[in-house]
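Revision sheet: structure tokens.
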Amino acid sequence: MNSSVNPKKIVLVGSNILAAVQREGVAGAGIQPGMLVAYDGNGDLVPHDVAGALTPKYIADMPDYVGGGIDYEYQVGDQVKVQAGIGGTQFYMWLSGGEDVSKGDLLESAGDGTLRGETEGVPLFVALENVSADVESVRIKVEVL
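Predicted:
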């Protein structure tokens, strides 16, 4: 597939032009660009681990400043580039394995850095495309609510 179908970046529309919403932090666990992340009790960034919970929309970005692309994997201790999503910002994130969502569906945290269709939790994003993640997590275009 070409780049118009599979983007090569995490921030699709929005916050990459607003320096005030970019942050950095130290990885406290393995993190992939496009994951929903949060600060743990030590102040380190980790995949967001509370399914359905209200959380700041912090999305791990790719470390393009060191040549890392969309498939880069941050290791414990790495400096992680993070974008703070504001309403209307579009990202290329991860949909949890086993999920099947349609364009317009509301999405919440799956509790492992990925997203899932809203169940009884707090919706954080809206799906911008139809995606089916059979077993493994797959990427999905989303917009911050």
